[in-house]
UniProtKB/TrEMBL annotation:
<feature type="binding site">
    <location>
        <position position="290"/>
    </location>
    <ligand>
        <name>substrate</name>
    </ligand>
</feature>
<dbReference type="GO" id="GO:0003852">
    <property type="term" value="F:2-isopropylmalate synthase activity"/>
</dbReference>
<dbReference type="InterPro" id="IPR012425">
    <property type="entry name" value="DmpG_comm"/>
</dbReference>
<keyword id="KW-0456">Lyase</keyword>
<dbReference type="GO" id="GO:0008701">
    <property type="term" value="F:4-hydroxy-2-oxovalerate aldolase activity"/>
</dbReference>
<dbReference type="InterPro" id="IPR000891">
    <property type="entry name" value="PYR_CT"/>
</dbReference>
<dbReference type="InterPro" id="IPR050073">
    <property type="entry name" value="2-IPM_HCS-like"/>
</dbReference>
<feature type="active site" description="Proton acceptor">
    <location>
        <position position="20"/>
    </location>
</feature>
<feature type="binding site">
    <location>
        <position position="201"/>
    </location>
    <ligand>
        <name>Mn(2+)</name>
    </ligand>
</feature>
<protein>
    <recommendedName>
        <fullName>4-hydroxy-2-oxovalerate aldolase</fullName>
        <ecNumber>4.1.3.39</ecNumber>
    </recommendedName>
</protein>
<dbReference type="InterPro" id="IPR013785">
    <property type="entry name" value="Aldolase_TIM"/>
</dbReference>
<feature type="binding site">
    <location>
        <position position="199"/>
    </location>
    <ligand>
        <name>substrate</name>
    </ligand>
</feature>
<feature type="site" description="Transition state stabilizer">
    <location>
        <position position="16"/>
    </location>
</feature>
<feature type="domain" description="Pyruvate carboxyltransferase">
    <location>
        <begin position="8"/>
        <end position="260"/>
    </location>
</feature>
<dbReference type="Pfam" id="PF00682">
    <property type="entry name" value="HMGL-like"/>
</dbReference>
<feature type="binding site">
    <location>
        <position position="199"/>
    </location>
    <ligand>
        <name>Mn(2+)</name>
    </ligand>
</feature>
<dbReference type="Pfam" id="PF07836">
    <property type="entry name" value="DmpG_comm"/>
</dbReference>
Length: 342
């Protein structure tokens, strides 16, 4: 693979996807300290919001330690070079949330939909683009559909005004060949002015390999998390990706030793549990399940005595997608009744 002199924009998720792993309980001080250290290390883009994006605070998704507005107002003014992004899932985040984020100084808005539902992003993408924001269409659970279907949905988002399209492996299910196929088709068929991005999860141990496959196929924006802090087995560990890209001659603008230190000294000590490929997170990848379902399934295991792995396999078999968090407890209850446990 020849990535010599290839410029890659890395985008940190530890303070947004990592919110899932932290049950949305990151303090303002932790947000500011970690974001500031990443800024100094040269991280160009950092995402800050509830794990489920703007407006995610709810019984269904979990109540955070602070509101999105509080997090953004704490972090944005402290950034010297890094830009701050916010995620928005139409139906959870509203147009008012979008305006609030813009007023707080957010520069990049990432409008996320299930991979077959790009049509619900028209209003939010349209408004973000009109406000002059870097506007990203983020197609989640992209393993569930063919490359041609991803392209069809991406074209809708581009038509609404997105200047960048993400192929998102929310379940950490994809293997490098699938990433290559999907990214290559997007790159070949979308206008050259549209950037392509990839967001991976490490549930099958493939996050670095998949990110490299994405770059080789034409992606220029790659998501990851310092120390991998993210849902499931976490996101692509950025300090590792920086080291790999450096060895391959690609450029990220990030200082390797500084980002290693952010991972080791700031992010790892904040983890509530090790973020690793274990039997439950591996099951997410193997069965193609939305990564943020992990802690919900583990809580249901404690409550109803059904193994999280069995719950996750059944969620995969049923083809559940993001937004169906309330089904997890319901399913565990049904399984427990069937087994005569309650
Ligand atoms: C709301 C999800 O956590 C977005 C994401 O990071 C993914 O689909 O993966
Ligand atoms: Mn994710």
């Amino acid at each position: 693979m020849n990535l010599h002199n290839k410029a890659v924009t890395l985008h940190d998720m530890s303070l947004r996807d990592g919110m899932h792993a932290k049950r949305h309980q990151i303090s303002l001080e932790q947000m500011v300290t970690i974001a500031s250290a990443m800024d100094v290390a040269g991280m160009p883009l950092i995402e800050v919001t509830h794990g489920d994006g703007l407006g995610g605070s709810s019984l269904n998704y979990g109540f955070p330690a602070h509101s999105d507005e509080e997090y953004l107002n704490a972090v944005v003014p402290k950034m010297k070079n890094a830009k701050i992004s916010a995620l928005l899932l139409p139906g959870i985040g509203t147009v008012d949330h979008l305006k609030m984020a813009k007023d707080c100084g957010v520069s990049t808005i990432r409008v996320a939909t299930h991979c077959t539902e790009a049509d619900v992003s028209e209003q939010h993408i349209g408004m973000a683009a009109k406000m002059g924001m870097d506007t990203v269409g983020f197609l989640m659970m992209a393993h569930m559909i063919s490359a041609e279907k991803v392209l069809e949905q991406a074209r809708l988002m581009v038509g609404y005004g997105a200047n960048c399209i993400y192929c998102t492996d929310s379940a950490g299910y994809m293997l490098p060949d699938e990433v290559s196929e999907k990214i290559a088709l997007l790159r070949a068929e979308l206008p050259k002015s549209i950037e392509i991005g990839f967001h991976g999860h490490h549930n099958m141990g493939m996050a670095i390999a998949n990110s490299l496959a994405a770059i080789e196929a034409g992606a220029t924006r790659i998501d990851g998390s310092v120390a991998g802090l993210g849902a499931g087995a976490g996101n692509t560990p950025l300090e590792v990706l920086v080291a790999v890209l450096k060895r391959m001659g690609a450029t990220t603008g990030i200082d390797l030793y500084q980002i290693m230190d952010v991972a080791e000294d700031l992010v790892v000590p904040m983890m509530d549990q090790p973020i690793r490929v274990d039997r439950d997170s591996l099951t997410l990848g193997y069965a193609g399940v939305y990564s943020s379902f992990l802690l919900f399934a583990q809580r249901a295991e404690k409550k109803y005595g059904i193994q999280a792995r069995d719950i996750l396999v059944e969620l995969g078999r049923r083809g559940t997608v993001g937004g169906q968090e309330d089904m997890i407890e319901d399913l565990a209850l049904t399984m427990a009744k069937q087994k005569g446990l309650i």
